[in-house]
Design a protein that fits this description.
Blueprint (H helix, E strand, L loop, with lengths): L3 E5 L14 H10 L3 E3 L2 E5 L5 E5 L3 E4 L9 E6 L2 E5 L3 H14 L2 E4 L6
Antiparallel strand pairs: 1-7, 1-8, 2-5, 3-4, 5-6, 6-7
């Protein structure tokens, strides 16, 4: 599963459905941010050459630079946006998004970023 960090409006991310960021709000944010793109899927190739695909309405990709490999997937789930194992640059982007959405950034254990 891995460690996840959440953008949420709830006092604790586990209760995000009680104070949700709506899918429409998320889509509007992504459409307005030139570094974000709504793909609704992610693909990766394993070392064995297999392709793994994950699909979810609200799955967006962040690409801060046109030609580099930085960025990552932002997954809308149950009234929150989730990122797995974010680095410091991604956490900064998450804080920017949270501010725009009137939310905050919280780790799996309830810690705020």
């Amino acid at each position: 599963m891995g460690y996840e960090v959440h953008i949420t409006r709830a006092p604790h991310w586990i209760d995000s459905e009680s104070s949700p960021i709506t899918l429409d709000e998320w889509k509007a944010y992504v459409a307005a941010d030139p570094e974000m793109r709504m793909d609704n899927f992610a693909e990766a190739t394993t070392t064995e050459g297999e392709t793994i695909r994950y699909e979810n309405e609200g799955l967006a990709v962040w690409k801060p630079g046109a030609s580099d490999n930085r960025g990552g997937w932002f997954d809308y789930r149950n009234g929150r946006i989730v990122v797995k194992h974010p680095d410091e640059e991604t956490l900064a982007k998450m804080r920017q998004i949270a501010q725009a959405l009137g939310a905050r950034v919280m780790g799996d254990e309830g810690e705020l970023y």
